[in-house]
Design brief:
Largest sheet: 2 strands, antiparallel
GO biological process, one term: regulation of DNA-templated transcription
Helix content: 10-25%
Shape: elongated
Strand content: 5-15%
CATH superfamily of the domain at 1-45: Erythroid Transcription Factor GATA-1, subunit A
Mean pLDDT: 86
Number of helices: 1
CATH architecture of the domain at 1-45: 2-Layer Sandwich
Organism: Enterovibrio norvegicus
GO molecular function: DNA topoisomerase type II (double strand cut, ATP-hydrolyzing) inhibitor activity; zinc ion binding
CATH class of the domain at 1-45: Alpha Beta
Keywords: Metal-binding, Zinc
Oligomer: single chain
Distance between the termini: 64 Å
Pfam family, one: YacG
Length: 65
């Protein structure tokens, strides 16, 4: 059974429409190129997920206290 109206998303890199399904092996990306560009941005730490600050970087914190 095929879905009549496939879900369409925008490629996070180039914003081209991408069918969310088996016909798009690199989803949510439109191509391997966009997928690798995104991976490179994460590897170079151009993209990151915000989180709690590292306690070891805080002023006044010590394991000896």
């Amino acid at each position: 059974m095929k879905q009549e109206n496939p879900t369409i998303v925008k490629c996070p890199q180039c914003k081209l429409p991408v069918v969310w399904g088996d016909v798009s092996p690199y989803r949510p990306f439109c191509s391997k190129r966009c997928q690798l560009i995104d991976l490179g941005e994460w590897a170079e730490e151009e993209k990151r997920i915000a989180g709690a600050p590292d306690m070891s970087d805080s002023d006044g914190w010590s394991e000896n206290q």
